[in-house]
């Protein structure tokens, strides 16, 4: 079964998505997500100019060999652009193989290890009242686990607050409740870590008092703290029994996480911007994290992320795969199949896509009682409506960035 055709499809229904569609000589098709939020066209070029010409005529069944060839033959390895492109090829080939076998993809990965996947949603608010309303809304939608993001007194617009619809000085709009914003220049947000560290524990105290001790609560620090600040936050949040504290400090330096571990027992989730096992090697081996946050889309596909998670399982570290709306329904489906099959599943991030996106990507996965399931259709269970996708051309969009009060650019 040879790869006969490879198409890179860019569409922007509710936001920008990059999809690779492979077709074999016997008519089977496979989809892979190659979306890299804010840098989508870099992956498009990498695929169209450098990867697609290498795929035509190759055996679609040789998934591992194709992965190793694309990773090693380029000489310039790793990085988000390269790994997103490889991921798209890898997932599309798994989609084809499962369709050829006539079974859902998770069956080829060893079959189901559970009946469904616990998922968490994103509650947020500029004020406590607005946050409480958001938590209740998510509970009404069926979520059993909820991420808590809050405004900070004195700061105008910060990460994770869905009600920040526009930014001063920028006419772009947030869409799909995510921070990427259509426009010619990234929006500027403000930040003050000391104010944040004072405020966040009071928010979690209020949430626990209102919603009780049972609901799993998560929080994303989004790489904004120094190691000692992250340790301070983790310690101050211990009374509120977090499911995890995510990306508390930039994790490229493992010694930073050693310091955090010394001071807090709050579970740590790391790796949203990691893309290979080499990023994780030391922090998994030294048991400096509790959850792997990578997305299938950004981490070399199912083949590579499965290997990372198998390595993590030796240390009782679980999955927490990235799953906001900048992961297309194709990437989400890949995560669900992988999560259903592995033993060390932890939790799945899940943000619902907009109606336009759901028309472009026809999906079979289900959402019931706080649990996700990829469905029983052969392959991924996602099909792309090419005509519908063509109605929504690419629109330039950027993630915001931060400045401190003195004008210094800060980690966003």
What features would you highlight for this structure?
412 residues; 13 helices; 2 domains; TIM Barrel; three-stranded antiparallel sheet; Enolase-like, domain 1; alpha/beta; single chain; ten-stranded mixed sheet
Report on this structure.
With 412 residues, the protein is an alpha/beta fold. It folds into two domains: 3-104, Enolase-like, domain 1 (2-Layer Sandwich), CATH 3.30.390.10; 117-378, Enolase-like C-terminal domain (TIM Barrel, Alpha-Beta Barrel). The protein is 36% helix and 20% strand. The chain contains 13 helices and 21 strands. The strands form five sheets. Strands 4, 5, 9, 10, 11, 12, 13, 14, 16 and 17 form a ten-stranded mixed β-sheet that branches. A three-stranded antiparallel β-sheet has the order 1-2-3. The longest helix is centred in the first third of the chain and has 22 residues, at 80-101. The radius of gyration is 21 Å and the shape is globular. The protein starts with a strand and ends with a strand.
Summarize the structure.
With 412 residues, this protein is α/β, with parallel strands linked by helices.
């Amino acid at each position: 079964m040879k790869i006969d055709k490879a198409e890179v499809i860019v569409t922007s229904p509710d936001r920008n998505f990059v999809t690779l569609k492979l077709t074999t000589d016997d008519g089977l098709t496979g989809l892979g997500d190659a979306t890299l939020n804010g840098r989508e066209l870099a992956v498009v070029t990498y695929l169209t100019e450098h990867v697609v010409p290498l795929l035509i005529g190759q055996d679609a069944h040789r998934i591992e060999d194709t992965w190793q060839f694309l990773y090693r033959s380029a000489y310039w390895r790793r990085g988000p652009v390269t790994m997103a492109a490889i991921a798209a090829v890898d997932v599309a080939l798994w989609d084809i193989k499962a369709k050829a076998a006539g079974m859902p993809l998770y069956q080829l990965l060893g079959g189901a290890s559970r009946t469904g996947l616990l998922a968490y949603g994103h509650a947020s608010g500029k004020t406590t009242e607005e946050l409480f309303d958001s938590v209740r809304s998510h509970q009404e939608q069926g979520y059993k686990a909820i991420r808590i993001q809050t405004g900070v007194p004195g700061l105008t617009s910060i990460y994770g607050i869905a009600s920040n619809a526009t930014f001063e000085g920028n006419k772009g709009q947030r869409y799909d409740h995510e921070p990427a914003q259509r426009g010619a220049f990234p929006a500027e947000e403000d930040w003050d870590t000391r104010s944040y560290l004072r405020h966040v524990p009071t928010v979690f105290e209020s949430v626990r008092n209102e919603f009780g001790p049972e609901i799993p609560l998560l929080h994303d620090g989004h790489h904004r703290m120094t190691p000692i600040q992250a340790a301070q936050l983790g310690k101050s949040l211990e009374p509120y029994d977090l499911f995890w504290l995510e990306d508390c400090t930039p994790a490229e330096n493992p010694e930073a996480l050693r310091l955090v571990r010394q001071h807090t027992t709050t579970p740590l989730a790391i790796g949203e911007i990691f893309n290979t096992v080499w990023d994780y090697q030391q922090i998994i081996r030294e048991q400096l994290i509790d959850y792997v946050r990578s997305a299938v889309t950004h981490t070399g596909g199912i083949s590579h992320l499965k290997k990372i998670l198998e390595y993590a399982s030796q240390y009782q570290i679980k999955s927490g795969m990235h799953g906001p709306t900048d992961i297309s329904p194709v990437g989400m489906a890949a995560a669900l199949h992988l999560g259903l099959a592995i033993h060390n599943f932890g939790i799945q991030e899940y943000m619902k896509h907009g109606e336009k996106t759901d028309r472009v990507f026809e999906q079979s996965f289900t959402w019931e009682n706080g649990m996700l399931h990829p469905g029983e259709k052969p392959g991924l269970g996602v099909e792309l409506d090419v005509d519908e996708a063509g109605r929504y051309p690419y629109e330039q969009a950027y993630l915001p960035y931060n400045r401190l009060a003195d004008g210094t650019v800060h980690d966003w």
